[in-house]
Structure formats: C-alpha cells, structure tokens
C-alpha cells in the first residue's frame, strides 16, 4: 500500500490521527439531543465532500474517491454504511465517558470491527506534505478514507484526554461533542459564539424578567382582588 497521504488507485487518507477530528465527524449529526436530529451525511458523496473539507482528503484524493464510488453503487453504499456505523459507535463510547458509564459492549465491538478494516500504522515515511503512514501488508481500499477518523477515535478514547470530552449543554439539544481544554475544565458549550451566546442571552432575559417581576410584585399583590383563587399548577 502507498503512503496514506498519497492518492492511489483507491482513494487514500491525507491526514494522520487528529485528536479532535473524530469529534468533528461525530458532530455530523446536528441537534442530536433534540427531537429532530439532522443528518449531515446522507450519502457517500456527502461523506467524500466532508472528508475533503475536513482535510482528510486532498483535492486529488477527493476527486479519486468521488470517481471510485460513483462508478460502484454497492461500494459506495458499503463505505457510507461503515462510516455511519463507526460514527454511532464512537458517539456511544464518548457519551458513556461523558456520563461516567462503562463502555457499551456493542459499541466497543462495532468500533473494533471497523478498526480491523483499516490499514495498520506500520511506519512513517516522507511524502510531499511531510510524513505519512505506510502499510505494505495489503492493497488500498475505498474504506481507507475513514482511517484518520477511526485512528482519531481510538487514540482519543484510549488516551488521557478522553476524560475531557464533553457534550454541549444547550437546552435546545445541540448535542455536539468537544474536548474541554479550558484551564478550569468547566466549559459547557460547544462554542461560545453559538450555543454559549444563546445561553447568555437566555440568562439575561430571565434575569431581566425576574427583576421586573420583583420590582412590581408588591404593587401587584396590593391590587389583587380579595378572594381571588390561586391558579392551579
């Protein structure tokens, strides 16, 4: 097999294992904790596009992957299904860590099954972008585009930073996972520019409303007609 960052007969991965890459992939289900989660990878084509945008595939690799999968619907379906199976198994394992629960055996088994399909990281060799992994034990396959994602998940889950993985606490059900690298370890939102700002706006609204109610509460009580029944809870 050629160096993984180099496109070959089968599309291959450009990046190595980035600790946060797998979480970005898991987060391709948006609003996971809401009543209407949004699937951002509805097809193999969408998967290839995501890998290109995330830097998993370079332009040549993405083009090769698109050609390869478009010419074989069965292969495209298998790659897409494997990607989603891996994503949901990874989510289940990260969520268990967030909740302080043991790793679900079914998710461990599912992730291990995908790991077994990936190339082995046997040696680092130079390529045009720096260094890449080489595995000479088997030919490249279409599934190799998932390798950096799978390595990232396995490394993060088994490493010391696993305890820093959290899930966004946005009450609308964002559900995105993130690594809390804050000094205090008290980060609650996937992004302060998104869910964090909404949370601040909600707190401000409720605080202002409570102050308004407290300021007019006495007048409201004195004007309340005698004998009025308290509303049922």
Automatic annotation (TrEMBL):
Please list every transmembrane segment annotated in the UniProt record, as residue ranges.
none
The segments labelled Disordered in the record are 205-233
Q: Which domain of life is it from?
A: Bacteria
List, alphabetically, the InterPro entries matched.
ABATE, ABATE_dom_sf, Znf_CGNR
> Residue limits of the Zinc finger CGNR domain?
164-207
Q: Which PANTHER family match?
A: BLL6575 PROTEIN
The entry's protein name is Zinc finger CGNR domain-containing protein
Protein source organism: Phreatobacter stygius
């Amino acid at each position: 097999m050629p160096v993984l960052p180099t496109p070959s007969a089968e599309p291959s991965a450009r990046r190595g294992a980035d600790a946060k890459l797998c979480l970005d992939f898991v987060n391709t289900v948006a609003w996971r904790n809401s009543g209407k989660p949004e699937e951002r990878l509805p097809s193999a084509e969408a998967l290839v596009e995501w890998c290109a945008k995330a830097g998993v595939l370079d332009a040549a690799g993405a083009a090769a992957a698109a050609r390869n999968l478009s010419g074989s619907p069965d292969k495209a379906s298998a790659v897409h299904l494997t990607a989603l199976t891996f994503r949901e198994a990874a989510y289940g394992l990260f969520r268990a860590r967030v909740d302080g629960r043991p790793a679900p055996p079914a998710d461990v088994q599912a992730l291990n099954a995908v790991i077994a399909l990936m190339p082995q990281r046997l040696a680092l060799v130079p390529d045009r972008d720096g260094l890449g992994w080489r595995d000479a034990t088997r030919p490249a396959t279409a599934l190799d585009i998932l390798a950096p994602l799978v390595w990232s998940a396995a490394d993060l889950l088994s490493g010391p930073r696993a305890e820093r993985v959290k899930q966004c606490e946005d009450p609308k059900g964002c559900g995105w996972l993130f690594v809390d690298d804050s000094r205090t370890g008290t980060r609650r939102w996937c992004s302060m520019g998104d869910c964090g700002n909404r949370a601040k706006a909600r707190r401000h609204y409720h605080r202002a409303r409570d102050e308004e109610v407290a300021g007019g509460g006495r007048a409201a009580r004195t004007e309340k007609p005698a004998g009025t029944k308290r509303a049922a809870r």
